[in-house]
Amino acid sequence: MITLGIETSCDETSIGILRNEKEILSNIVSSQIEIHKAFGGVVPEVASRIHVEVINKLIDLALEEAKVDFKDIDLIAVTYGPGLVGALWVGIMTAKTLSLALNKPLIGVNHLEGHLFANFLREDPPKFPFIALIVSGGHTEYILAEDIGKYRILGQTLDDAAGEAFDKVARILGLSYPGGPEIDRISKMGKPIFNFPKIKCDRELDISFSGIKTAVLYLVNDLKKEGKEIPIADIAASFQKRVVEELLERASLALKKFNIKTLVVSGGVAANSYIQERFKEEAIKEDFKLYIPPKELCTDNGVMIACAGYHLYKKGFKSTTTMAELAERRTTEFSAIVFSLTTKSLVRIAP
Q1: Tell me: the pLDDT tens digits for 23-63?
Q2: pLDDT tens-place string over residues 94-134
Q3: Are 280 and 274 in contact (CB under 8 A)?
Q4: Where are the beta strands (DSSP E) in the chain?
Q5: What are the residues whose beta carbons fall under 8 Å from the beta carbon of 315, sequence distance 6 or more?
Q6: What angle do CA 8, 14, 15 make, to 5 degrees?
Q7: CA angle 63-65-70, nearest 5°?
């Protein structure tokens, strides 16, 4: 079975082609980072226009690299949300058109579920149930994954996502966009000598980054007022350590609370070298299995959407070409977790 996956939720246009559950035939990604860097962040209208310009070319390239033709495609999978609405609709309309023209089934995939399934492209995929930490530029969530399409959110960010906090702190420190890789890079030159405050939330598995971010801002402003040199590398290392320790603390708590021995980490921020180092250390210390995708599969890509679509389709999930049901159903009707295109209501189309 060959699945074509389409991902256009933010500033990467990506087409992935997958044979069966894990044989990657192609995974083409076109990044817009250099374009948005001039603005210090993603401009939604610009992102949408670029998706329109490149998506057909990328489909051709993906088919060519995979050595398949349109007639060989068995399933079309596409990110339906969350993300930038205009950007999402470029991918969605492309997927609908292909589904109708080729008379092939269509399945809408939640972007977060796609990140989760990036780990299923490994030679040794995780087995359910497991605790998932999805940590990216727009999301930070702890999820109990009981089965394909059956998830429960245990905790989530109350303000900024981790990647967003990295970007904002990088801006405070005068580093370039995107901030996550810059903080990761410069932290290696510094030492975590500053003690930023621990995070406190009413629910033990929720997380908030506003306090740490504000503490960094106050520290930089105080140093400027005193005419002192700002130790950028040390501040970056201290900030990064505090964030990663908070993420790890809650992940360990979730594993113990639900008596689970498998942790799946995914999303763009999972590519951070310090996150990988500390989580691997903790996995050895606490004796749990840790899954993190290869760096190229941490960031947004089409093959993770193809993988999620394949598994959902095999499980009995399907979408209509309107995809209206994906935005209309609510968590009171279904136990599974997926974010809708326009709201943060939990939804899932029933098998």
Answers
A1: 999 999 999 988 998 888 889 999 999 999 999 999 999 99
A2: 999 999 999 999 999 999 999 999 999 999 999 999 999 99
A3: no
A4: 2-7, 12-19, 23-31, 75-81, 106-110, 130-135, 140-147, 150-156, 262-266, 289-291
A5: 148, 149, 351
A6: 115
A7: 15
